[in-house]
Amino acid sequence: MLREDEDRDRQYVCEFVLTHATVSCGRWELQRYNVEAHGRLGEHYAASWQPGQAIVIDGRFEYRVCDTLAGPLPSVWIVAHCIDPTLGTYPHTDHHQQNIA
Q: 101 in a domain, yes or no?
């Protein structure tokens, strides 16, 4: 999602959720990360993103408390300094179906 950030001189901010599959205790787990990219980086990523694209993000973690219907909940965000899409598409699209011994 690309939006204008009124707190930061009205520059654009791209916000998205990055998903990553990993193995924990012999089972596949899907991890989700909230990511935001500001300014020209955010505009470029919003315009060039493609489904299934594997990326590398360089940035910093930021702790936030988000208001939800269940009350305030802690949340960790990645504030991107660089998004590298040179990996192409993720080569193992059936990775969640593989059995781990």
A: no
